[in-house]
Amino acid sequence: MPLLTVGHRGLMGAEPENTLRSFRRADRAGVDAVECDLHLSKDGELVVIHDAEVDRTTDGSGRVADLTLAELRGLDAGLGERVPLFAEVMAAVGAPVQAEIKDPAAARSLALAVEEGGLHGRVTAISFHEEALREIRGRLPGLPVALVAGRSAPTAPERAVALGAGMVSCELAHLDPDVVGRCRAAGVRVIAWTVNTDAELARVRELGLDGVVTDAPEIVRAVRSGA
Q: Would you say 97 and 20 are in contact if contact means Cβ atoms under 8 Å apart?
């Protein structure tokens, strides 16, 4: 099976992260899925931004949850791009989307967006937050979910099974053959983040993983060419 390629926040090695420009770049590069990050604005809109604050990725400051959609729209997210709505990301790309719930409060809004938009076949809900994934499973039992893990990767296989998650997305540095083997035994797929170098891609292949999450167009090309 060829490796699954997931564009991280679009393709943030080439474009401003979590912007429509970045997601379109990933889509054109031919990734198998794009990953985006979800928070709620002060007025309850499902917006796409990684951090709980806007300071790092925009020319503004403050917490996402303290800013209205209009205020968020007034910020420059890089190269004149604006903080997008989740619905805008879904409209902008043809690839499936891994929607990462950064704020557990956004889980309900994501479930509603999937239901109202008829997006069941295009979205996988992913999160570090187990309560967010349980919320999704309760509201949309048929929607695929994936557990994200960093240093907690050693316990990811069992936690994924308990959540009904068919995939774990783990930080590559914390994956080893034992974790991968327990995932395999449980029927859980394993992808790794963030894979941006030839050496990291070689490690993915050595571990026999199912896919990569990458910032880099050249990694997407290498996977697609079989290099």
A: no
Output the CATH code of domain 4-225. Answer: 3.20.20.190
Q: Which helix (H) or strand (E) holds 126?
A: strand 123-127
Q: In angstroms, rounded to a whole number, what is the distance separating the alpha carbons of residues 44 and 103? A: 12
Among residues 15, 33, 61, 38, the alpha carbon closest in space to that of 132 is found at 38
Q: Which residues contact 102 (CB under 8 A, 6 or more apart)?
A: 37, 38, 39, 50, 52, 127
pLDDT 10s digits, 92-148:
999 999 999 999 999 999 999 999 999 999 999 999 999 999 999 999 999 999 999
Active site members: 8, 50
Dist. CA 53–CA 29, nearest whole Å: 29
Q: 201 near 218, Cβ under 8 Å?
A: no
DSSP state of 2: P
CA angle 45, 48, 50 (to 5 degrees): 125
